[in-house]
Amino acid sequence: MTHGETTSGVGEDIAEAVHADEDSKPVTAAVRRKQESRRKLLAAARKLFVERGYHETRPQDISKAAGVGHGTFYLHFEDKLDCFLAFTEEAAGELELFLEKHLAEAHTLEEGVREILKAIFEYSEANPAVLGAALTDIAVLSTGDMGRKMPADRWADSWAAVIDRWKEAGEVAADIDSKFAGYLILGAVKHGGAYAYRKKMPYERVIDQTTKVVVRALEAR
User: Which one of 12, 94, 121, 128 has the minimum C-beta count within 10 Å?
Assistant: First the structure.
């Protein structure tokens, strides 16, 4: 799964189409090669960002790991940050599929919280260390507005949506700020999860304890 072709990449594809002859096979092959090189670059970037972290990963490292020329990197990404953001968008989209599946089974606030936590654990088990890498604080990487919603924002929104749902059902206190609560829960899950990992707590206990804390903090009394 990939997201967000760069403007320059789209422009190149359009230019190829405009100048192509009636036979479209060369264009199709070119687009296919372009998609494949991007897929290789994203796969390599994912591996390196997870293993080394953002700061210790260089564009030339990604190109080498992907088996493509260094110049090819810049046909797809403006710079390393642009590549990192593409990686985080990919991870966010993957996790959202897990969340959608689990939330379909939730019928109460407690079930909603528990199912989100199960989705996070299942995704993390299938994709070790990806969430930790994707949640790198990009505020320290760029001071500008990148025009993209970061994973932390998307996942806080997921929590806020669950809170709003159960606020309407009367299970969550009416004076709770759903968006703010979403960020608080996200931070608690991130740091609580790190603690649980260090202490080797069983994931069932982590989910149970976290669910109790979150529900008791939110529930209407």
Answer: 128
